[in-house]
Specification:
Layout (H helix, E strand, L loop, with lengths): L2 H20 L11 H18 L3 H8 L9
Helix pairs in contact: 1-2, 1-3
Length: 71
């Protein structure tokens, strides 16, 4: 799996998890403050689209994962 696909999968999982933890009525609701983490993930995805900098991609590259074309 390429770096781009890992980053997209990780972001998607984290967004779904933090929304479930932050939304009242969810079976795994914990606290509404989890929605701040959801916003952080969204802002990080937005800035990486323009700057090309993604902390997770940097970590994965150092771990030896290969970049690829996402689409």
């Amino acid at each position: 799996m390429s770096i781009e696909r890992i980053v997209m999968a990780f972001a998607g999982i984290m967004i779904m998890l933090t929304v479930a933890l932050g939304m009242q009525g969810s079976p795994i609701f914990h606290h509404t403050y989890w929605l701040y983490f959801t916003a952080f993930i969204g802002l990080n995805l937005f800035q990486s689209a323009f700057t090309g900098f993604c902390p997770l991609a940097t970590i994965l590259k150092k771990m030896g994962k290969k970049p690829g074309v996402a689409f």
